[in-house]
Specification:
Blueprint: E1 25-29, E2 35-36, E3 52-56, H1 61-65, H2 68-78, H3 93-96, E4 115-117, H4 120-126, E5 130-134, H5 144-162, E6 167-172, H6 176-188, E7 192-199, H7 205-213, E8 217-221, H8 225-238, E9 242-243, H9 249-255, H10 257-265, E10 273-278, H11 283-298, E11 306-312, H12 317-323, H13 353-367, E12 372-377, H14 379-391, H15 398-412, E13 421-426, H16 434-442, H17 467-472, H18 475-490
Parallel strand pairs: 5-13, 6-7, 6-9, 7-8, 10-11, 10-13, 11-12
Antiparallel strand pairs: 1-2, 1-3, 4-5
Length: 496
């Protein structure tokens, strides 16, 4: 059946009807393996304190429902759906949270973010074809919306099931998580309220304005993200609150959609692809690996891409772990962070590290030794790369700059070859980090960042006529004087 021109919210055309089948899901502890039901909010295992992953107990039945090519056709058909619940990340409903009802699903326009191939000049300079996936074009201008759409959909399901009359959501944030949490909480409304904890003075004005604008209660704590996270963890363990950081495994589940979209954009062919992901709290790199593994398991793709994590030298515990060549001798240790322009990555003890290790082990087992790796870059390299990217028509945030710097570093180390293709995760919109760009252009970075601008990349406005001249001259004379100053500045030639 073909979809009519005036397609209603739901119709029976292929790819438009909301799935009727439901599955069974459980929390699985990565520490002790204990399993728990999903009828309550759980973040860490009560038995051992380990973090959870969510497992679909009926996932293998999906292979009996459709072949890999048939799943591709269904997901491709849904790309044009007008069924609201299937328009965003839940286009891949069966791969994510097939326990939710259609009325549970929250959709604010998240997902389906563009993948933009690098400008030819930039591509040639780097020496490998690559693209930015602009996740800053999500509703709150960051990738965190993917996770929040899933977490709040699940929260709506619990509210419906248990009849809760009040739910207080809390999160620690360096900016993006708080913006997304506050936005989705304000949309769901009703019993759901939002509180966010931010490190005092460590969030850009643009990022601070977002949760305030959404009506969240914003609390600041002296210190860094890790300090805020400890407070939030204490609250979640001892009080009736819903934690929305990456300890929330429903958030991780929503972020798997990034992998699904990348695979779909490239025609479900992941051979020769390298996906670069900035690592902060390590939830996103975990989700992306999990997503690709699901596609492989279902036969939707027949090869894994390579996943390369990137960390700043100011916050690099995951890089330090994987920089040890012998897996048998690797030891994880938190680090004390220093100020970083990649604020979302300025985390010294990522709560999702156990997930990273578990998923990286699976990824390497399926894709070979080179399937997963981590590179370290400097703050200088991050800023230079971000400015270079945006100089060539992109809208990369500092984390996108971190990924470009990571690609350049990976090329230097021989980790990627010119015949491969890279996808770089620009996790947020560049406008959120305009302050760092301004500091680069004006050479006003505090010393602790260790960033010295490249003069060839700096830019600043030039005043062509003084305010005093404008006040002194007639309107006609002022226009002529300004025009002549512009001509002199640009070296324009008169028309023949």
């Amino acid at each position: 059946m073909s979809c009519p021109t005036s397609c209603p919210t739901s119709c029976s055309a292929p790819g438009h009807d909301f799935p009727s089948a439901r599955t069974r899901m459980e929390y699985v502890c990565l520490g002790c393996g204990e399993r728990r039901g999903i009828d309550e909010l759980l973040y860490t295992c009560p038995s051992c304190g380990g973090v959870y992953l969510l497992e679909d107990l009926d996932f293998d039945k999906l292979a009996a429902q459709r072949t890999g090519p048939e799943w591709r056709a269904l997901f491709d058909a849904r790309a044009a759906t007008r069924t609201t619940a299937l328009r965003g990340i839940f286009r891949f409903y069966e791969l994510m949270a097939p326990v939710l009802e259609e009325t549970d699903i929250v959709y604010l326009g998240e997902g389906n973010t563009p993948i933009v191939e690098a400008a030819p000049v930039l591509r040639d300079a780097v020496g490998i074809p690559f693209a930015f996936k602009n996740d800053g074009q999500n509703p709150s201008a960051s990738f965190k919306d993917r996770g929040m759409a899933c977490a709040f959909s699940y929260l709506k399901a619990l509210v419906r099931k248990h009849g809760w009359d009040e739910v207080l959501t809390v999160c620690a944030s360096t900016g993006d998580t708080s913006a997304a949490a506050a936005l989705y909480a304000s949309y769901v409304g009703g019993p759901v309220k939002s509180v966010v904890l931010l490190p005092h003075g460590k969030v850009t004005p643009q990022q601070l304005s977002q949760p305030l604008g959404s009506g969240a209660t914003v609390l600041e704590i002296p210190g860094v993200f890790d300090d805020c996270m400890k407070v939030v963890e204490h609250l979640a363990e001892n009080y009736r609150v819903a934690l929305l950081n990456s300890k929330n495994s429903w958030r991780i589940l929503g972020q798997e959609s990034y992998a699904f979209e990348v695979a779909q954009w490239y025609g479900w062919d992941m051979k020769g692809q390298c996906v670069f992901v900035p690592i902060g709290n390590a939830g996103n790199v975990t989700a992306i690996m999990a997503g690709f593994l699901k596609l492989l398991r279902l036969g939707v793709i027949d090869a894994l891409p390579r996943v390369i994590g990137v960390q700043s030298h100011h916050a690099d515990p995951v890089w330090r772990y994987y920089s040890q060549p012998d897996p048998a001798t690797r030891q994880y240790a938190p680090v004390t962070v220093q100020p970083s322009v990649a604020q979302a990555a300025m985390i010294g003890n990522p709560v999702s590290f156990p997930r990273v290790k578990a998923l990286a082990d699976r990824f390497i087992a399926e894709g070979g030794e080179r399937a997963f790796s981590v590179v370290q870059v400097t703050e200088q390299e991050i800023m230079d790369a971000m400015i270079q990217g945006n100089r060539h028509g992109h809208i990369a945030c500092t984390q996108g700059g971190e990924c470009l710097a990571g690609l350049i570093k990976a090329r230097e180390l021989g980790l990627v070859s010119p015949d491969e293709h890279a996808v770089l995760d620009a996790t947020a919109h560049s406008l959120k980090f305009a302050g760092f760009q301004d500091m680069y252009f004006t050479n006003s970075f505090p010393a602790e960042y260790g960033v010295t601008p490249d003069p060839s990349l700096a830019n600043a406005p030039a005043l062509v006529v003084s305010p005093e001249d404008k006040a002194r001259l007639s309107p006609e004379a002022y226009t002529l004087a300004a025009a002549e100053a512009v001509v002199a500045k640009l070296g324009l030639a008169k028309k023949a």
